[in-house]
Each structure stands twice: as structure tokens, then as C-alpha cells.
Please model this.
Amino acid sequence: MNTEFAIFLALTSIASGSSLIAQTMITEYSPQRHERFVDDRGDEVFFGEGYDFSGVGRTDSGRFATHIGEGWFLTSASARLSPGETVTFVGGSVSAHAVDYGFRVGLTDLWLGKLETAPGSDVYSYEIERSLTARESLVAVGAVSPSNPLSFVVGANEASGVGSVDTTSFYQAPTFSTRTGVIGAGPDRAIRGDAETGAPTFVDRNGVLTLAGLHWKAGTDNLLGGHVERIATLQGFDAPILRFGKEVAQSAAPVPEPGSALLAGLGLALGALRRRR
Model:
């Protein structure tokens, strides 16, 4: 498939309302080469051959959750997962896990979540990349047809305009840009759209994928390297307190925003303290 037809396919998908198909354009796209799950690859070799994608989870709605160990996952705050929502991983077997709780990393667009049960050893746990540099080759994951929400496409891109982890703040993660042009791009370039927020971007370290960032908007990813310590701190938070917040959110109608749930929990706690006096 040539570049022009790849663009045509994406535009006609938008017109037909198949937004998940439309969000990733891959030059010289072929399902046998670029999709993780196909019935028959024929003579094609999967672009992601040799890499472990078992830690890239999907929800029924097609959102992404990337496993970083012991049931913890990362996604985008603007596409965060709700308590009770199911994340499915495909490793040596297919396993589904309900989201227990989660919270925003500072006020960035990064979301750290915890599953009720941790996946087995057949689901990979990705390390966070700390030293991404400009011009490095990337392995980009993107969405495909909603008819198979567990599948996704894999293609190439390149890091450019990499922010410094020294500028990481409570309010904003540094970012890195990815190439968005298709003219002269060559085969396999994956260009992702805004609706794929939270999809992972990896870098190859001696044949092993490390998690460089999470897709934010077209041509831009949030760089994770500057948030390693903050994420580790959040993982040490008291789980029962967070589960209490989840129960408050689930019992309310309509479901409140996280801030409302927190206020509700605080009100109950203050009421209990007053009754004890």
C-alpha cells in the first residue's frame, strides 16, 4: 500500500465514523505487518517481531493501560480509567483485571492506576526510560478497528524536540515531539491522532522495550523520565484510603468527578470526628 493510499484510507475512515481506525496512519500500511493480532501474516513479518507487547493492556472502549509492575499501570489523565473498568492483557493467555483505584501524577496529564489483581508473569512490566535523546528511533503503538479492541498497530517514529527531565514540575510533564509528516517518510512511519491519548511510545534498549512516553496529542508525547521518583512515591500511598475514595465515587449518582469524591470523603471523615467528641 503506498503512502497516498494510506492517507486516503485514514480520511475515508474519518468520514465513515470509524475514529479508532482513523487515528493512526502508517505509511505503506499492511495488517499483516503492522497489526499485533492477525489470522495469517502470509509472507509478511510483524514490525514488532521480537518485542514483548503483553504489557500493553486495552479496555473494551479501546483505551490503553501500560503495565509497569505489580498491577500498576500508566495512562493519560485525560483518558483515565474508572474504578471497576476492565483492562485486558494478552500474554501467554488472555487475562482481564478490574481497575481498583488511580490518581493523577501531580497536575500533569499522566495517570497512575492500580488493578485489583496483578497480572501473571506472562504479562510484561515495562521500565520507564530515563534518558531519551533527540533523533532516537521509537516504537509507536496506536489504535486500530474497534471491532477488535485488544489489537493495535505498531510502527516507527523518531524523537525530536525532547524536553529536559530537569524541567519536570508538579504541574506539567516535559514532552517530546514525533514526526507527523508522511511525504518522504518511508515505510512503517506511524502517525497518531489526538484520540489515542495514553497510547505508549517505546524505545529499544538492547532489544528490550522501555517506556519512553505516553501519547498526548498529535505529534506530542509526555516524557516519563522526569517522573520516576514521583510515581514511586505515589505507589507507596495508603491503598485503603484510595479504595475508600473509590467506594464513595461508586455509591454516588451521578458519579462525581475525583475532586467531588475527595470532598465527599473528607466530609464523612469530619462528621465521624465530630460524633466522637
About this structure: The chain has two domains: 3-230, 238-276.
